[in-house]
Hints:
Layout: H1 3-24, E1 58-64, H2 83-91, E2 93-99, H3 105-114, H4 118-121, H5 146-151, E3 156-161, E4 180-183, E5 215-217, E6 220-223, H6 231-245, E7 251-256, H7 278-299, E8 306-312, H8 339-342, E9 343-349, E10 357-364, H9 368-376, H10 392-396, E11 405-410, E12 413-419, E13 422-428, E14 438-447, H11 463-478
Parallel strand pairs: 1-7, 1-8, 2-10, 3-4, 3-7
Antiparallel strand pairs: 2-9, 4-5, 5-6, 8-9, 11-12, 12-13, 13-14
Helix pairs in contact: 6-7
Bound molecules: magnesium ion.
Amino acid sequence: MSDSESAREVGRRVVLRGVARLLALGVVATTLAPTLAIADAPTDESKAEGGLTKRPPNLVVIYADDLGYGDLGCYGHPTIATPHLDRMARQGQRWTSFYSAACVCTPSRAALMTGRLPVRSGMCDDRRRVLFPDSAGGIPADELTLAELLASAGYHCGCIGKWHLGHLPQYLPTSNGFHEYLGIPYSNDMDRVAESGLGRAIFKQPRVEYWNVPLMRDTTVIERPADQTTITRRYTDEAVRFIRENREGPFFLYLAHNMPHVPLFRSPDFVDHSRRGLYGDVIEEIDASVGRVLDALVDAGIDDRTLVVFSSDNGPWLIFDELGGSAGPLRGGKGGTFEGGMREPGLFWWPGTIDPGVVHELGSTLDILPTAAALAGIPLPDDLVLDGVDLSPVLLGSGASPRQTMFYYRGTKLYAVRHGAFKAHFVTQPEYGPGGAEEHDPPLLYQLEHDPGERYDVAENFPEVIDAIASLVREHRQGLAVAPSQLSAKLPAE
Ligand code: MG
């Protein structure tokens, strides 16, 4: 892309965002934004051909933090009880190859919110892998967020919970398409108070005052430290209120729990709730929260026009032993590019519309933006470079997943690629701690349907698969414009 083309693209995106913001504020009539074609937004509730509802459906995305592939009953955990998530799986779709686009918090959330790999937005970095309270950066203004897209078509957008795409005013949810926000703007283990004197043991005896994290309402800090012992319950109360108040729709609710990221906290009602101990208590409270959200939709009579998605930002944080979750049969966890770091539960629930079952095809949180756009009938800007694909054919039972390939990045570097059932690791590295990156030529090759634990390298037997994947990598790199890091800059010391 030439400089002038690049400038034009940025200019266009900025105009689009500006329109979205004005629409969110009610300043511009929808007919003034013809490029978004929102004047044609259908309001008829009847079903169109192909099963799509003409009336734009509500969207609820429930996102856990550091929850592993193996942590739910419906994904095989033996002692964590998740009846409400199991109900989502039974009544909807349970995906077995659903991926976050990164193995740590900030980049995976950026990917969900933009439908783009974090290298394109600068929301990843090889040294500072996530944003911190002293970070100066955040999601760039020229990125089109899922909330901006849906707000442009008249959706009311609410964000509850962990944001982690920048805590300065210009980066907060309310500057990125959301009309309202309540939450801790970054990870719940940040702003750590040194005086606890416990070192690593602080996580085994967590107390609210050890982490001076803020709870924000829109752009204002309303509590500090946030009382994390009730945070899951209060996020859920807020979600239920949001659903009731916006029952006429359409709305987009992004409910991003801070749990089960360490330090682990749960409400008094969930103490000693689970056979799995503290971590299980936390998951079972999240499950109860899911139950309250589903019930609120049913009670409001809008469950038949609401798509609910459940997933997690990255795999379990294994260095915390019992305080971390489980990737089940998968290898590795948070921070790495083996399956346990990025393959996640993926549940889709929309009674009466979704085609129930277990889906073994590939999907990703990258796909939520284009899928939501398709379901709502919102055209995407022609010049928007997306890594996500529209999964609505699978959800509606009308076709196959367009996703054949998944790219696994660690920071700004491509480490592995899955294509079909095969995954090639060009580089491997321990998730955390000592041990640097190790390059592999030929790459390690695993057949994931036969060997989900990535134990048996079959590279020797499938040279043609390696060639095909190498060719996909070349093609991917040719079209890739790597953006400058948003994660490296720090605020001046106070
Ligand atoms: Mg996380």
